[in-house]
Amino acid sequence: MNKKSYLRSTEWFGKDDKMGFVHRSWLRNQGHPDHLFRDKPVIGICNTWSDLTPCNAHLREFADIVKRGVYEAGGFPLEFPVMSLGETLMKPTTMLWRNLASMDVEETIRANPLDGIVLLTGCDKTTPSTLMGAASVNLPTIVVPGGPMLNGKFRGKDIGSGTATWQLSEGMKAGTVSREDLIEAESCMSRSAGHCMTMGTASSMASMVETLGLTLPGASAIPAVDSRKKVMAHLSGNRIVEMVKEDLSLSKILTRQAFENAIKVNSAIGGSTNFIIHLVAIAGRIGVDLVLDDFDKLGSGMPLLLNLMPSGKYLMEDFYYAGGLPVILDELRGHIHTGALTINGKTIGENCKDAPCYNRDVIANIEKPFKDSAGIAVLKGNLCENGAVIKPSAATYSLMQHKGRAVVFETIEDYHDRIDDPDLDIDKTCVMVLKGVGPVGYPGMPEVGNLDLPEKLVKEGVKDMVRISDGRMSGTAYGTVVLHISPESSIGGNLALVQNGDMIELDVKKRKLILHVSDKELKKRKENWKAPDPVADRGYVNLFINHVEQAEKGCDFDFLRGASGNKVMRDLH
Ligand code: FES
């Protein structure tokens, strides 16, 4: 590999003029001697730490550990904060700010004297947002995933973040779980630092970056509080300095092959549907053309190898002890591009060669998978002309071919107002339809697609129904849930035209989602349809609704696709 002689940071620190003095002098107020940052790789540690993002609250300490590794390898670390997106506190939904956070990362990296980047990530959006930003600059970049929480433990049983929340909430509706049970379960579920420990979006994103080749091998599943996570952070600090010297920039790793690997692995681990939106957006920044059909074509033939909630019964801690992602990658050796390059300079195939598995009940053998088929099915039809998705491994088999009467909720508030009304005209064969939760309409496409079932049906023992919307679903959720319908209802997609009583047909095998209403009638309804008023007329939300793309394009802003590279526009004078 070529050794790089020129350092970008020299443009700041290497000049013996007035501005060189300015760049160095102010940095020296921290007590850094001159030799530390002259002619040394300067490593930016992009930290998504925030008290408002509980999943990332341990990353402040991790930044110090990465710094030790950078110093040890002869680099100079500079930590910087970026907008942090915490799923559990931000309203109305973190997805509204993923692109803003990515802009923060992109512009901060480009504007500063940085040669290499370490991304400290954890909670769902903190991984794709930082990676999108870094991809648009394209410096050598390594990801340190913050790691999952320890398994939840409640009254002798393992409970998983998110997944247990849905189960407990259903139990409340059915009358089998009390308020006291719920409060006790809160602390039992979240009992250590780290992100959700189910195969939700955060774990899917961590697995994604490892598969893309952007972490040290085996990094993603290590629990946040395991000392081996700190070792991994230290070694990542070592490695990024070498990557700068080797000029191993992101675009050399984020190739089409790497993205195809990520799609296959996400299927085999039962990863989140949110993965689709984020991967498409990341690919768009680095110039790889991914389309929705790639996810079905490449991913739906994969077997499910990982027995983790919400598709199975174990949790991320078990996954790590069973051998972690290298075992999955080795099992998929015949399916993935083993020659794809990773940040340690080796191929993904070399990194996972003969990875030992310590528990075959957690990670199945490819000859005897946990479930025969996994992945994400991409649906087409007059109800979703640009596509919709469903995760079959989290759905009920008998509902994957189903025709039922539509019960329509025009907004999420309308749903909450009426869902538990004993007079609501609904039975278990109906199809629940939610409008107004797409990227533009909500705005920000919240995770509400896995609508709770009506209380009266839950009490009758109904466990699942077909639910469709233009929104997303938490990666920890489950059910026969059709998501990401595009075009969304708020911009006039046919979803907007569905009325109570219409018949809707879902056929996952044939990849169809059909509204059984004639074209003539749809045309008439469309003529009478009125677009909802925009939700904001100023500020960032206004920018968002005017520029966000639809789900199949990754919900990035139209003006953010592509990259601007690492050159600064003008010098500081
Ligand atoms: Fe942060 Fe689930 S809430 S990862």
Instruction: Please estimate the helix content.
Output: 25-40%
Mean pLDDT: 96
Residue runs with pLDDT of under 50 for 5 or more positions: none
Q: What's the number of extended β-strand segments?
A: 14
| Side-by-side strand order of the widest sheet | 7-8-12-11-10-9-13-14
Give the CA-CA distance, first to last residue. 36 Å
Shape: globular
- Number of contiguous helices: 21
| Share of β-strand residues | 5-15%
Query: What radius of gyration results from the CA coordinates?
Result: 24 Å
Question: Can you put this structure into words, describing what you see?
Answer:
This protein has an eight-stranded mixed sheet with strand order 7-8-12-11-10-9-13-14. A four-stranded parallel sheet has the order 2-1-3-4, sandwiched between helices. It has a two-stranded antiparallel ribbon with strand order 5-6. 56% of the residues are buried. It is of the alpha/beta class. The two termini are 36 Å apart. It contains 21 helices and 14 strands. The protein is 34% helix and 12% strand. The chain folds into three domains: 298 residues, no CATH class; 39 residues, no CATH class; 175 residues, IlvD/EDD C-terminal domain-like (Glucose Oxidase, domain 1, 3-Layer(bba) Sandwich), CATH 3.50.30.
